[in-house]
């Protein structure tokens, strides 16, 4: 049981003994910096149950705690706040209990049920872009946080590898590609295919302009441009299983997959299972038929099938067209059910998809609940805002998209420029420098994106993200490297037990309190699907360590016991930083 739980129970015992009242809850908060204390009990909420002066009530509870709880050293009351000072020995006992745990803060994986986390889910007609970066970093980090909180996790993506947009790239390559391949062009496969997606759009616009010049209405020209009609015909052939079209589709998709794999590797994300829309687009139709029989869905006069969600504040939603073909919703229903068939231990899913799809997922989750699936109660849409650059929005059709590979490369170059200006890399080989630039650049990118609440829109500034001061990845990485430097210089003795009679410096105590919060933060981040809680916890811990570093002598401390403890404390802070950053998918360098 944690100290806060112990304190909470003793406060309830005190109120019962002193005032003959059962207190349902006790409200705690950290003691303000300008008052003496480690934890504060807020007395005001008790006044609904206990009549009296809050200062007097606080003082009486404080006296009770000092008498009945050995960890409580002393108490003071400021207005309606009971500030409690905890004995140093409590924190030192805590430190001894966790200092050798390499997985401190993580919970052993439970065998009861699993969660599937979906992220990335790109189209195979273009490379990954800045929006995909936020999607991948969020999904991957949430999956790692859920694992650390004790959940079994499957990471997945559904690849949108079919449809008119895919045929546009294929047709443009046929027309303008002259047999070009990734090998002959020197381009990554996804970049090559994306080039022809842009080429299609350019040709399409030119044809529309020509038709308009020839006297056709623009709206009609947009529908009847020859290249669009050809793409539509290619899609029909693909759906009919035309050998030549399917062969071209497989070849160009294979180029894209090779490109994606490189980007994922560079980004540091992975997957346990891949789903393909070409395999799943027919799923769900049988489910709709079953739902019709159960009365979940209804059929309109034209034969189309719908669900009425007006009682839930939504509207009617089509799930099957009049010709019997599926819509995206049908496919998503079928895919969700297929995933549980593939992984029977799944009892929840997380969908990492931008906030423009908020309505879609409300409808999807409601439908699955109405169909009677128990796991549908544990579905979550990890909705996130867009990412903008100072240069503005992205349009992939026009070729103005911010490419993920280019951005990662740009981050490395920015890290190189800033590191060179700071002159921190004397004695490094070129290979070591290159590796470090990559670690700093990618860490800066990931941290800048993940420190923000997922629902908020981000204006991403590469130069600002690589700043070595403030709430940035490089600032935290630099503190970790500083700790490793201390450990390299320290004498042996890091494994020895810390004497609990040691008198703690105020800064040591604050650090221990920060370390103590890590397991709770991991659980909170898992419950809220929020890497931002981990990122900002780490920043607070690092700020506390730097304050400790500036005000307390570590290696220069003459008292051997104190010196060894401070080295061990620094080591543990480093381990927590590394563990927290691992949940964000960020590496930490041994030297900077």
Automatic annotation (TrEMBL):
<dbReference type="InterPro" id="IPR001278">
    <property type="entry name" value="Arg-tRNA-ligase"/>
</dbReference>
<comment type="subunit">
    <text>Monomer.</text>
</comment>
<keyword id="KW-0067">ATP-binding</keyword>
<comment type="similarity">
    <text>Belongs to the class-I aminoacyl-tRNA synthetase family.</text>
</comment>
<feature type="domain" description="Arginyl tRNA synthetase N-terminal">
    <location>
        <begin position="5"/>
        <end position="86"/>
    </location>
</feature>
<dbReference type="Pfam" id="PF00750">
    <property type="entry name" value="tRNA-synt_1d"/>
</dbReference>
<dbReference type="InterPro" id="IPR036695">
    <property type="entry name" value="Arg-tRNA-synth_N_sf"/>
</dbReference>
<dbReference type="GO" id="GO:0004814">
    <property type="term" value="F:arginine-tRNA ligase activity"/>
</dbReference>
<keyword id="KW-0648">Protein biosynthesis</keyword>
<keyword id="KW-0030">Aminoacyl-tRNA synthetase</keyword>
<dbReference type="InterPro" id="IPR005148">
    <property type="entry name" value="Arg-tRNA-synth_N"/>
</dbReference>
<feature type="domain" description="DALR anticodon binding">
    <location>
        <begin position="476"/>
        <end position="592"/>
    </location>
</feature>
<feature type="short sequence motif" description="'HIGH' region">
    <location>
        <begin position="122"/>
        <end position="132"/>
    </location>
</feature>
<dbReference type="InterPro" id="IPR001412">
    <property type="entry name" value="aa-tRNA-synth_I_CS"/>
</dbReference>
<protein>
    <recommendedName>
        <fullName>Arginine--tRNA ligase</fullName>
        <ecNumber>6.1.1.19</ecNumber>
    </recommendedName>
</protein>
<dbReference type="Pfam" id="PF03485">
    <property type="entry name" value="Arg_tRNA_synt_N"/>
</dbReference>
<keyword id="KW-0547">Nucleotide-binding</keyword>
<keyword id="KW-0436">Ligase</keyword>
<dbReference type="InterPro" id="IPR009080">
    <property type="entry name" value="tRNAsynth_Ia_anticodon-bd"/>
</dbReference>
<dbReference type="InterPro" id="IPR014729">
    <property type="entry name" value="Rossmann-like_a/b/a_fold"/>
</dbReference>
<dbReference type="InterPro" id="IPR035684">
    <property type="entry name" value="ArgRS_core"/>
</dbReference>
<keyword id="KW-0963">Cytoplasm</keyword>
<dbReference type="Pfam" id="PF05746">
    <property type="entry name" value="DALR_1"/>
</dbReference>
<dbReference type="InterPro" id="IPR008909">
    <property type="entry name" value="DALR_anticod-bd"/>
</dbReference>
